[in-house]
Amino acid sequence: MAVDEIRFYRANERPYGAFSNLYRCVVEFEGRLFPTAEHAYQYGKPRKQEVREWLMRAPSPSLLAMAAHGLNRWDVSPGWSQGKVDRMRRVLRAKFSQHPHLHRLLVSTGDSRLVEAGSVNNAVNRFWGEVNGKGKNMLGVLLMELRDN
């Protein structure tokens, strides 16, 4: 029986928490190893190398994300807002091509709609996912795009 929609959010949810960028699996991206897809994604955000390295030392992927979302605009690389979706697309391609079990999990979702279902109503959660059914769900869109290719 096909499921119309698969909702995920926390990295420890089974089995679809693996779709979260906070899910712990090493991703090789741009010649560097990162402990999670979130690390690989956020590494591209800061303008200065020392800020990148500071972010990479965060004690958890969720704290990394919080710190990166809190960067002042002058600490963010020029063009970040225009290039962030493409960077996420490339990070996801790396994650799912480097881990066959994750690739199989993604393909196993068939044509179900994938939704990152956030609980905190803020602009970041409404951009990458949905909160209370509202949002762009860009992470879900990119995962479905990857699945279809």
Quick recap of the structure?
The protein has 149 residues and is α/β, with parallel strands linked by helices.
Structural commentary:
The chain has seven helices and five strands. The chain has 149 residues and is α/β, with parallel strands linked by helices. It has a three-stranded parallel sheet with strand order 1-4-5. Strands 2-3 form a two-stranded antiparallel sheet. Helix 4 (80-98) packs across helix 5 (100-107) and helix 4 crosses helix 7 (138-148). The longest helix has 19 residues, at 80-98. It is globular. The two termini are 23 Å apart. 28% of the residues are buried.
Q: What are its keywords?
A:
149 residues, alpha/beta, three-stranded parallel sheet, two-stranded antiparallel ribbon, 7 helices, 15% strand, globular
Mean pLDDT across all amino acids: 95
Terminal CA distance: 23 Å
The largest sheet has its strands arranged as 1-4-5
Alpha-carbon Rg, integer: 15 Å
- Could you say which overall geometry the principal axes of the C-alpha atoms support? globular
- The number of distinct β-strands equals 5
Q: Helical region count?
A: 7
Strand content: 15-25%
* Largest β sheet strand count, sense and barrel closure: 3 strands, parallel
Helix content: 40-55%
- Pick out the low-confidence regions: none
The H-and-E topology, N to C, reads as EEEHHHHHEHEH
The secondary structure category is alpha/beta
